[in-house]
Amino acid sequence: KENSYTRTQDNSATGMNLSLKETPQSVSVITSKRMEDQQLNNINDVLRNIPGVTVESETSDTGSAQIWSRGYQIKNIQIDGAMSSSNHSYEKGNESIDSAIYDSISIVRGATGLLTG
Hints:
InterPro entries: Plug_dom, Plug_dom_sf, TonB-dep_rcpt-like. The chain is of the alpha+beta class.
């Protein structure tokens, strides 16, 4: 578990453990400490706290939502570095995905984020 709101290194954009300053893309990281302190209990709560990301929740009780960043719908996600079939599993029921199981959640912007998640 993280004991800080910030991270000095992240490998989500390039696969290499670079400092955020050395990373050639814009990366937003929400640490477990911040998730716990701000009571961000599910993935939608976390995503709503990332600048430039919009979460459009459905009005039904399915817990599904559409995620948007910079005008593009986010359909590609990675969980622990592996591509996920997010088109269906993530959009249907992401209210129920508990954020407590993650050390951090990273959003990568730019070409890498658009193509790989």
